[in-house]
Amino acid sequence: MIIATVSTLKANTPTTRRRSLITMGDTQPSLLPLFVWLSPAFPVGGFAYSHGLEWAVETRAIHDAASLARWIEPWFKQGVLRNEAILLSLGWRAAMARDPHGFSALNALALALSSSQELHLETSQQGSAFIAAARAAWPFADLTLFDDCLEEEIAYPLALGLFAAGHKIAANVLIAAFVLAFCGNLVAAVQKLGIIGQADAQTLLAHWRGKAEALAIFAETAQEADLGTCSYFADIASMRHETQYSRLFRS
Predict the structure, then answer these.
(1) pLDDT for 120
(2) What is the CB-side half-sphere exposure of residue 228 using CA atoms within 13 A?
(3) Maximum Cα–Cα distance for the chain, whole Å?
(4) According to the model, what pLDDT value does residue 25 have?
(5) Residue 157: which of 195, 119, 210 has the closest Cα?
(6) What pLDDT score does 24 carry?
(7) Backbone angles phi, psi at 245, to 5 degrees
(8) How far apart are CA 14 and CA 102, in angstroms?
(9) Angstrom distances, CA of residue 130 to CA of 110, 116, 153, 201
(10) 52: burial class by Cβ within 10 Å (0-12, 13-18, 19+)?
């Protein structure tokens, strides 16, 4: 028979367990800000952008879940998802190194890599909106070092990387979460266009989890020389969307 002592019982009370969790949160960086920042409710306006998918739907290049998967999956290795993951990682590293000059140069590069006017608008508008909301609600000690950077247009992954570094969120978790959230926004756009339903959307996102984690592992140590895309259809879709007659999205 096992006899529980008074001290053992006391150690297992809800109050004590709660205190141990709070202590853990005090000594280790929390991932909770990511749940807020990458939520559709965070005011960056991600719902307004489709990254050219609206044109692909209009032309029937995307017409079901399978064709959506064929359109997006190459982006993990040679498209926007790869580039955004690398930029996020590089921005996080510059912020962790407290290097505003390097951060600013990287931001200029990120904006210049936009392959169309709409994609420049997409990243810069979301980046600026993220900074405005996070600066007010989620400040951190070294934020003032980057004040000059934040007076300019800022690419969305750079904005997120800055605050994630400021809150000491690990790069690999940050990148994987960002990539999957990016995919979630793309899938949601196609849902709004009536091409897929909720079941297909969640199946795709669950399937892409492993790809997001693999990309995060690569991007965590990637360098500027690794930047580059080869996704011509996506670039053309974005450019054609600029003159599409009837549009629900801004990109």
Answers:
(1) 94
(2) 5
(3) 78
(4) 42
(5) 119
(6) 36
(7) -65, -50
(8) 48
(9) 16, 21, 11, 25
(10) buried
Q: Three-class SS string for the chain?
A: CCCCCHHHHHHCCHHHHHHHHHHHHHHCCCCHHHHHHCCCCCCCCHHHCCCCHHHHHHCCCCCCHHHHHHHHCCHHHHCHHHHHHHHHHHHHHHHHCCCHHHHHHHHHHHHHCCCCHHHHHHHHHHHHHHHHHHHHHCCCCCHHHHHHHHCCCCCHHHHHHHHHHHCCCCHHHHHHHHHHHHHHHHHHHHHHCCCCCHHHHHHHHHHHHHHHHHHHHHHCCCCHHHCCCCCHHHHHHHHHHCCCCCCCCCC
Residue 179's identity, in one-letter code, is V
pLDDT mean by block of 10 residues, the chain; 251 residues: 39 39 50 95 94 95 97 95 98 98 97 94 96 96 93 95 97 97 97 97 98 98 94 88 90 90
- Residue 17's pLDDT is 36
Distance CA 44, CA 168 (A): 22
Alpha carbon distance 185, 47 (integer Å): 7
Task: Output the pLDDT for position 27.
Answer: 52
Tokens read off for 133: 């909301």
Structure confidence at residue 233 (pLDDT): 85
C-beta separation of 190 from 55 below 8 A: no
Both tokens of residue 159?
A: 């904005």
| Residue listed under structure tokens 């951060």 | 103
Query: b/e for 123-151, b at 16 or more Cβ within 10 A?
Result: bbbbbbbbbebbeeeeeeeebeebeebbe
